[in-house]
Amino acid sequence: MAQAIQVSEAAAGGLLEGLYESSSPVMKAAQAKQAFVAQVRDVLSQTGSATGRDWVAVRREVVSAAPAPGTPPPGEYVVVVLGVETGPQRGRLETITFHRDSDNQWRLCGFVAAAVGQPAPTTNPKK
């Protein structure tokens, strides 16, 4: 949970390249750095600066089957959804996903932000 808030704060602080560089190989295989940076910057600039964050949901997922197109590769995942307040009656949801890599370290493998009331951008963009 604390790691998800750190990721959210780092993204809001413009440290997107660093987040990508330290992310899981799962994320790097799914999305190029430039696409990740552009997508997150776009949503964050549209929704404004955070004035507060709180968790909405946390879930653990185990993907064991061979992946189908558009699904994550096998492994263990933790998905954290944060509600981010950005002003009176404004905000966004941030879905931050971690993957347990082969060295048993949990690393960022997904970050999707969407304005409340807006559809989320695709979670599996093309490179």
Question: Can you describe this structure?
Answer:
InterPro entries: DUF4019. It comes from Novosphingobium pokkalii. This is DUF4019 domain-containing protein. The relative contact order is 0.22. The chain has helices spanning 2-12, 16-21, 25-30, 33-47, and strands at 52-63, 75-87, 90-100, 106-115. It is an alpha+beta fold and 127 residues long. It is globular. It has a single domain, classed as Nuclear Transport Factor 2, Chain: A (Roll), CATH 3.10.450. Strands 1-2-3-4 form a 4-stranded antiparallel sheet. It starts with a helix and ends in a 12-residue tail after the last strand.
Please tag this protein with its features.
single chain, 127 residues, alpha+beta, Nuclear Transport Factor 2, Chain: A, four-stranded antiparallel beta sheet, globular, disordered C terminus, DUF4019, DUF4019 domain-containing protein
Give the overall form.
globular
Termini Cα gap: 28 Å
Gyration radius over CA: 14 Å
- Helical region count? 4
Structural class: alpha+beta
The count of strands amounts to 4
Mean pLDDT: 88
What's the level 1 CATH class?
Alpha Beta
- What multimeric state do the chains show? single chain
Number of self-contained structural domains: 1
Helix content: 25-40%
Low-pLDDT runs = 123-127
Spell out the helices and strands N to C: HHHHEEEE
| CATH fold-level topology | Nuclear Transport Factor 2, Chain: A
Strand content: 35-45%
* Spatial strand order of the main sheet: 1-2-3-4
Named CATH architecture: Roll
Largest sheet: 4 strands, antiparallel
Protein name: DUF4019 domain-containing protein
Pfam families: DUF4019
